[in-house]
Give the backbone structure.
Amino acid sequence: MADYKKALFAQMIKDFAETEVKPLAQDVDEQERFPVETVEKMAKLGLFGIVVPKQYGGAGGNYDMYISAVEELSKHCATTGVILSAHTSLCAAPILEYGTEAQKQKYLPDLATGKKIGAFGLTEPNAGTDASNQQTVAVETEDCYVLNGSKIFITNAGYAQTYIIIAVTGKGPKGPEMTAFIVESAFEGFSVGKKEKKMGIRGSSTCELIFENVKVPKENMLGKRGEGFKIAMKTLDGGRIGIAAQALGIAEGALDATVAYVKSRKQFGRPISAFQNTQFVLADLATKIAAAKGLVYVAANAKQNKLPTLSVNAAQAKLFAAETAMEVTTKCVQLHGGYGYTREYPVERMMRDAKITEIYEGTSEVQRMVISGALLKK
Amino acid sequence: MKIIVCVKQVPNTTEIKIDPVTNTLKRDGVPSIINPDDKTAIDVALQLKEKHGAQVCVLSMGPAQAENALREALAMGADEAYLLTDRAFAGSDTLATSTIIAAAIKKLGADVVLCGRQAIDGDTAQVGPQIAEHLGVPQITYAAAIDYDEESQALIVKRQFEDRVQTLQVKGKCLITVLSTLCKPRYMNVWDIVNQDEKEVGKITFADIEVNPADIGLKGSPTKVKSTATKQFDKTIETLELDAESAAKAIVDALKQRHLI
Amino acid sequence: MAQNIWVFCEQRDGEIQSVALELLGVAKELATKTGEKVGAILLGHKIKDKAQDLIAYGADEVHVVDDKELACFLTEPYAQATAQLAKQYQPSVILFGATSIGRDLAPRLSARLKTGLTADCTKLENDENGNLFMTRPAFGGNLFATIICPDHRPQMSTVRPGVMKKCEPDYNRKGEVVEEKIEWDKSKFGVTVIEEIKNDDSCDIDGKIEDAKILVSCGRGVKDVAPAKELACKVKGAVAASRALVDVGVMDHSRQVGQTGKTVRPQAYLAFGISGAIQHLAGMEESEFIVAVNTDKSAPIFKVANLGIVADAAAVIKNLNKLL
């Protein structure tokens, strides 16, 4: 991608995030409100189809661009960042990668233009980190698969119309045979259940999905029968880069807010930025953010170029960026003192938002498993 | 309908700082932007295109780096972009600039020319009307709303004055300068950012247009800058202890001095 | 040879605009230096009787075009009239008010007369040879440039309203009134007026605080906001508040300035009874001109104010309402 295009994109997304996203962030958090108006604006700008090729209605941009969009949005509002990440990485990307030509033509144009929002359902009450312990079943009949069961903690649930759902289709040699399906919210028997009340990213819609005899046409099977677990894991590799970018954005946003604060806040007759403790804390945080940023874009590059190191790159990016976000936001709250603990300043929200990045799409512990597993396999 | 939008790349003056020691402008590192009124003009042109069908062409005069502003316009959805650039154009004042731009517009051909009301680096608001005169087409400045009436094939323009609004009708070729308050310009979009290669920025030089060399550049400019000075900041912050009546008088004086009341 | 200093005397609905009289004032000073005459151009319909006023304010000769084509301001008829007169009489200087009319007409005319134009001048001086030195702000007022137009005549300039001083009118002053006839080329008019509506002059104190030119902002030191609203109306501004008044329900949250409210940048921010907590300052310190009134001499608001007054806010508001 030519440098001038990257520069135009960076200018556009920065301008959009500061003008359209930042002013709503506090309200979205306090009201636990899905920012529909922002989603509409993002759709118009083509942000939901950055990596979708032109022939499917997308822009045909690269992964760097998409990742920088999540990062930039998350600087001001982590809720908005994860909406884009879940839509792109967990729904559009697997269709692009594993879908048939017919599936791509049917689903990608609406996802690329944001006419429809995408989501992904793997997690169940008894299948979190132990994702293979699936209870949702899809039974093959003559003309379709009949889906029964439920999923929990589904990002974008209720607002999404296109879902990638993993379900058990039989018994395999090493356990249940899992298969991925493209499920439309309009299918009969599909419903959205309980909405979670969360600590952070409170505007993001996180709900239960319930399937009661949902008839999924056979042509909606994504990939081959039995490839569900592999597709889910590969999809999550991509998703982790999105979450890592979200964590990076949160950390950067908190640091920006804190730098401004310490320059204006005065104690003992001088701005607190004049104290060496403040300076050293800021220096350490900025350095960790820079390191996280490096990892995030290494992983984005691995995804763009389909490098074999993708799994490890993504796991390292997410592990480090998430833990950095948590550390940065905690210390930024500390630098704000009492004000940092109030909703008067955004760092309070950012600290709550940061926590989820250590948990979803694979906890930090899972990332360590992925990284060490690759190391020890050699 | 072919619309040419004239845009200028300007330094973002809100970010220009004064060096407190030398008392000069610090222009280094000040980002360049599309002049705000001009950006609105681009949006207006794109709106006319969406509603009534039009070909939107953006035109800028400036150094090579002004191509960035044109690229931004293309990323907003403009169809074509041209950069007027030549050493012979350097040093042009508003009259000489308008002569050059008008010559380029004649070459490109346009039904409607849209300009921003004024540029934030010069604030003159002169180039638009001067282009209109060179082209021999009617002008409407300070447009607060623009619409096209397909039946009468006329543009209907609300023209803003300090104390009134005129609704004007213009048929045929014309030049309109728009206020940035007309609408909030759209953002660039991802499709037009990524797929710019299909739209090249055309270069127009002195050799491509019909102008008398005596009418352009420094020698074609009737006005010359004799001297410049930076603003002496009235930094003195006064805190006065006054009775209520004198306080009120001081406030009224200060506001009047600044023509705010 | 071109000579005499001309002023385009803007009228609206037959009323001479203040800027025209200010320009006659400065034209008279310039003309005194070179021994030239001050000429006034008065264009409009049914405006002949205003010529005497222009003489009282400094014009030596008034060129009047009283024609129905000039009833409302439109660029082309006004440009044709002015261009014809300028070509006929060859003035050395033509000054316009930098209003939405002057700034429309003057550039069109400069291109027609093939001469230079300097916009928005705040200072005009000349030498004995009649060369005009036109000083104007640039780069958002960060820089001042003095512009000359050495080889072309007329020298043209638009001048900011309110900058130049009018003379005391002298109705005994003698001057010549010349009624002019213009040869119209109506084929060039092009633009027709469908309607003209004058602005509603009523004040909009409840308008968006981000859009207001002047904000009358109240804090804890103002117990009753009614007089502040009256003041906002008088200065054609809007009312705003610090968090203190919003929290107690006196003002709506949409009027709150500061960290958890709005960031504003009006041309004038009048802070009454606001101490200026850092959260408040963050929302208003970019205002162009800040006036602070507070009884506490050490209030932080005074650190950002251009004009700080230690006084009782409510009493000052009361006096302002009396004065305005």
